[in-house]
Amino acid sequence: MESGSHRPLIVGTPSPDGARWDGRWLDETGTAHFAQRLAASPAITNATLTLAGDLGAGKTTFVRHLLRALGVQGRIKSPTYAVVEPHRAEAGPHGALSAWHFDFYRFGDPREWEDAGFRELFASPGLKLVEWPERAAGLMGAVDAALTIGPEETPSDDTDLTDGPRQVTMQAFTDTGRRLLAALNT
């Protein structure tokens, strides 16, 4: 699929072993297209994805597009101060779905993990999207895939720089993660 200017929305290549995808999002439309491809995979319904990238890299924008593609209605806000935002899709492509968006940027005390009930959330069925996962290292359990987003170092002259091209890597660690990567190659 291509955008109105006949440029690819996302460009990427899988690794030979199917455990990694490297590519780029030309603009926010590319981010939305990537999210829609992941949302099409039934594996997303019970996956844990970590999101890495500097402040402003596009992690929360990706989450918004993914949750919309899964059928979440209403406001989707960043959990920066709340640490977690719960979401529910009643009639998405895979039926009813529970999802949690975590942002551990301000997380500093492992006792918070138990006090907030995060162990139970991560053990429950549903999608978990985790920003700043390194701040909760050793507490989360199995991660299915890791998405790394960063600005493109040398954008070409024909790109829209208002939201900037992004270099993107998605690495799978489980069968669920590999099924998600397979959705990017359809």
Number of helices: 5
3D shape: globular
Low-confidence region ranges: 1-7, 157-162
Main beta-sheet strand count, sense and barrel state: 8 strands, mixed
β-strand amount: 25-35%
Mean pLDDT: 83
Give the helix/strand class: alpha/beta
Give the end-to-end Cα distance, rounded to a whole number of Å.
11 Å
Q: So what's the oligomer here?
A: single chain
Helicity level, as a percent range?
Answer: 10-25%
The secondary-structure element order is EEHEHEEHHEEEH
The Cα radius of gyration reads: 16 Å
Explain what you see.
With 186 residues, this protein is of the alpha/beta class. Helices cover 25% and strands 28% of the residues. The chain has helices at 28-39, 59-69, 110-116, 118-123, 175-184; strands at residues 10-14, 20-25, 48-52, 84-92, 95-103, 127-131, 145-151, 166-172. Strands 1-2-8-7-3-6-5-4 form an 8-stranded mixed β-sheet, with helices on one face. Residues 1-7 and 157-162 have low confidence and may be disordered.
Write the layout of secondary structure elements.
Blueprint: E1 10-14, E2 20-25, H1 28-39, E3 48-52, H2 59-69, E4 84-92, E5 95-103, H3 110-116, H4 118-123, E6 127-131, E7 145-151, E8 166-172, H5 175-184
Parallel strand pairs: 3-6, 3-7, 5-6
Antiparallel strand pairs: 1-2, 2-8, 4-5, 7-8
Helix pairs in contact: 1-2
Short description:
This protein is α/β, with parallel strands linked by helices and 186 residues long. The chain is 25% helix and 28% strand. It has helices at residues 28-39, 59-69, 110-116, 118-123, 175-184, and strands at residues 10-14, 20-25, 48-52, 84-92, 95-103, 127-131, 145-151, 166-172.
